[in-house]
Amino acid sequence: MRQAGRYLPEYRELRYQTGTFLDTVFNPEVAAEITLQPVRRFSMDAAILFSDILVIPHALGQTVEFVEGEGPQLGALDVQRDLGLLDTSRLHARLSPIYDTMARVADGLPAGKTAIGFAGSPWTVACYMVEGGASKDFAKVKQAAFGNPMAFGGLIEILIDATAAYLLRQIEAGAEVVQLFDSWAGILPEAGFVRWVVEPTAAIVDRLRSQAPDVPIIGFPRAAGQLYDLYAEAAGVDALGLDPGVPVSAARRLQAKLPVQGNLDPIWLLTGGPGMMEEAHRILDGLSSGPFVFNLGHGILPSTPPDNVALLTELIHAWPQH
Predict the structure, then answer these.
(1) Tell me: the pLDDT tens digits for 81-105?
(2) Residue 15 catalytic?
(3) Is residue 151 part of a domain?
């Protein structure tokens, strides 16, 4: 999950010297430094690239803007009318600063630390592209997917191609693991989940495996609930990211199929104290005897005290089976 961000004073000092959020993402020197900050401060076992899932629509030519306090805003895409406006020919040219960032991160990591690349999964990226930003009910994107699956499938195919190509370039630049974030996987019913979450993920995994067979792929179908089992069996990923709603007992069952990653609620890290430590112990007790990456169940919150992060990482590093 996201490690770098506004909870770190060194991030804030650097971030606001560079202009907009996207200016920061596309500045390799600054983005690499931000990526490495949590590793330096907390001795994290891995560094995940400082970027955003919406760099793909941005690279395809869609208008993308991050408004402080409001989140991402995009020029909403009509799948029947606008697919021809997406320009795949300049994808790598527009994303080349991110590949530079990954190379800098890989070069700058201490020995024994892992560089993680990532991308948004096609369904989640399509949600933002069609809705024009975040949404409460996702009515536009669901209507597009349910009502015009052929046109919507055209968008998903574009995103499969772009995402696989993007992740392969990250791997070439030094990413040792890649992760697919499907933040809005949980809003779909089972049939839609199979068609728009599982199948596109499996297509991307197949392409990555054909060219980078030794690079592990983590899939995170957030809020998938009982459909986590289906995803674990059919998406083809090497490990499974879990949101905070997955009980340890269910995570243990999934762990029999795949390594699992997660799933401390970020609010515990924000809150700290004995409660945080007790919850971390509960997760570690339940999952650390199998293949497991301790992590949050979603991104770290901006108001999280760095001291809480330090205490948690110390606990994990001292754990007997670390």
Answers:
(1) 999 999 999 999 999 999 999 999 9
(2) yes
(3) yes
Mark whether 128 is an active-site residue. yes
pTM for the structure as a whole: 0.96
Based on the structure, what is the number of domains in the chain?
1
Give me the catalytic one of 7, 11, 99, 128.
128
pLDDT above 90 for 26:
yes
Is the peptide bond prior to 263 cis by the omega test (within 30 degrees of 0)? yes
State yes or no: is 52 an active-site residue. Answer: yes
Domain containing residue 133: CATH number = 3.20.20.210
- Does a structural domain hold residue 271? no
Domain, as residue range, for 150: 9-241
- Is residue 120, in this structure, part of any structural domain at all? yes
Q: Which of 2, 104, 169, 222 is the catalytic position?
A: 2
Query: How far from 111 is each of 39, 107, 114, 115, 215, CA to CA, in Å?
Result: 12, 10, 9, 11, 18
Would you call 228 a catalytic residue per the annotation? no
State mean pLDDT over 36-40.
96
Q: Which one is catalytic: 15, 104, 169, 222?
A: 15
Listing DSSP states for 51-95 in one string gives --TTHHHHHTT--EEEETTTEEEE----TTTSGGG---TTHHHHH
Determine which one of 11, 52, 228, 243 is catalytic. Answer: 52
163 neighbors 121 (Cβ within 8 angstroms): yes
- Residues 156 and 85 sit within 8 Å (Cβ to Cβ): no
Within a domain: residue 267?
A: no
What pLDDT sits at residue 68?
80
The pLDDT value recorded for residue 321 is 65
Record the tokens describing residue 122, joined without a space: 């096609």
Q: Among residues 91, 203, 218, which one has the least CA distance to residue 157? A: 203
Q: Side chain identity at 172, as an amino acid letter? A: E
Burial class (CB in 10 A: 0-12, 13-18, 19+), 207: middle
- 41 as an active site residue: the answer is no
